[in-house]
Specification:
Length: about 400
Amino acid sequence: MTMARRPGLASRVTAVVVQSGMLFGLAFASSAGAGPTLTRGPYLQRLTPQSVTVVWRTDAAAACSLAIRGEGEPSRIVEGATGVSCAVEVGGLRPATEYRYAPRADGVGLGDESSFRTDGPRTRFTFLVLGDSGCGCPAQLAVRDRMLASPADFLLHTGDMIYRKILRPEDFDRLLFGPYRELMRRLVLWPCLGNHDRERDDGAIWREVFVTPANNRDGVEDYYSFDYGNAHVVVLDSNAPTGRKSAQRRFLDRDLADSTAPWKFVVLHHTLYSSGGHGSATRLRRNLVPLFDRHRVTAVFMGHDHDYERTLPLRDGAVVAPGAGTVYVTTGGGGKSIRPVGTSGFTAFSESAFHFTRVTVADDTVVIEMVRADGLVRDRVAVPRRSS
């Protein structure tokens, strides 16, 4: 397949900062029942210590703008483009600071304030990982409710956000933005392309709704990397080529080599080590595992198989001592369905259950936990920091 970039929200993000002279509350005055209304969001994308992109959609075209204020700071208005899809990038933020914001249409507020916290120098934080969720079914909502009860700093999705043979833009509202609205308005969800997310137009709708860093040489939105605290995260598109001469593999090699973070994580959809129904994606494993070994990746998070499975630490396909290899976690129990899973020689723990994975990063240890929809923590491992 080709990896040509398709136009999406990321290619349309524009913003001009205008300092507001009014009190913040006045910026949200509105006439009941008048003007455009929200149909999606707001949700956060591309969070850094100094910036964030806020995205939303309305039922009619309007001039997009965002009202935002930090603690002890005067409010300001950030102007965007005009349309029904709004993506407003806000710069000049302070690290490790809480901000409150609300989207506006034609200068009128679109609802209550939301809040988020910028990244900053930190050696302890938590992120949640889920996959294979997009059904709109009770199991998805049960996992969602358990995630809402778990404090976190950001979210990772391993793909298959939507399950429909004929994929439509409104499916993302029903199966993603609706269920996770309260999470996504305060935490960034970093997306990964699953095979079902590409059912129509090779993932064009997925690209339309997400704004990724696209920080690879070709500006492709499908794979990218970001930093958070003392960790580096790479998100791959496992549907696309990863062979030795592929652009994605070259990006992965350079990106991991350039990072000095003590903790490195990788996210992709197809599972590399699996005792579940799909089994291990062995070609992907041959292409990618040597790079994970070379660059000392801490853990790899995957989906596709609808179960949970954690491997023992592995290096070159063999089990090694804790801290001497990479841990591979299949976390595909986000709601769609669960399927039987067995064990293999590389398996540390496996279970067929609806769940999400919670990862707590500290200075010298990463703790990985499998949290079931009923709240039980069924698996827990502490991964030590590798010595230099």
